Task: inverse folding
């Protein structure tokens, strides 16, 4: 069998095996996700993986072929093996393909995801948005629901607690602790708002107000799935690893009851 044919067959077989493996063990298998934004992120990495598999297999086969097919034969005493100095067709094809692949990644998922992210900020996409003000402080979280007039929501133990209704877009307004709104950079430190299951993370910078949009899609809570918890993801002092808050995604009815109860507790 000619080298070219053998190479081609191996390339097709191993690429197909790789694609099959991504279909079975795609990113969604090892990583619990519970928001539309996380699904977009996982789809993007799976897309890149699928495109790169044939390229990866090609490079690996080239290496293996170079090491096995072109090694010096037993009894060959010539000073060096026959080699091409330059194969212009091969080099041109290779550079063209890799440049095209890189430009394609620049358009999708990079540019397409950036556009989708900016679209999240458009007013027409935020008619029914739930606003949650998040304040980060060494070393705790505060959650406020300004549309309901509710501040510092807590669970039955009095710990800060974040509750969200399923399938409703949430606008997290993220600030570092600044009780007097002085926007003084000395007030608190940099934190990072991260709920692993939502697949998004945003730094919280003193003096800045940042926004993050999430649409939760799975009803669960920290107790049954620790991937759904608020976790600081920026080293912010000795209490940083423990800067967590429990969270829960519930039906919209349960959320309405919960927020009414929070309001009652706050006013009593
Ligand atoms: Cu922190």
Result:
């Amino acid at each position: 069998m000619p080298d070219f044919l053998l190479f081609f067959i191996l390339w097709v077989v191993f690429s197909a095996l790789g694609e099959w493996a991504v279909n079975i063990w795609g990113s969604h298998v090892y990583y619990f996700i519970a928001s539309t934004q996380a699904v977009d992120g996982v789809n993007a990495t799976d897309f890149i993986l699928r495109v790169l598999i044939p390229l990866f297999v090609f490079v690996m086969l080239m290496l293996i072929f170079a090491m096995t097919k072109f090694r010096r034969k037993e009894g060959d005493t010539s000073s060096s093996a026959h080699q091409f100095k330059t194969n212009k067709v091969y080099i041109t094809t290779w550079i063209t393909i890799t440049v095209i692949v890189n430009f394609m990644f620049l358009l999708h998922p990079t540019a397409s995801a950036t556009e989708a992210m900016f679209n999240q900020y458009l007013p027409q996409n935020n008619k029914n948005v739930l606003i949650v003000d998040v304040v980060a402080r060494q070393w705790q979280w505060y959650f406020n629901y300004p549309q309901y007039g509710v501040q510092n929501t807590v669970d039955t133990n009095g710990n800060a607690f974040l509750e969200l209704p399923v399938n409703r877009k949430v606008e997290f307004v993220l600030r570092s602790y600044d009780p007097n709104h002085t926007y003084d950079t000395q007030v608190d430190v940099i934190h990072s708002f991260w709920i692993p299951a939502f697949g998004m993370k945003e730094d919280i910078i003193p003096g800045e107000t940042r926004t993050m949009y999430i649409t939760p899609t799975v009803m669960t809570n920290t107790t049954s799935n620790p991937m759904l918890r608020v976790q600081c993801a920026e080293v912010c002092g000795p209490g940083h690893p423990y800067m967590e808050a429990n969270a829960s995604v519930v039906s919209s009815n349960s959320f309405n009851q919960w927020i009414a109860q929070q309001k009652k507790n706050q006013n009593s």
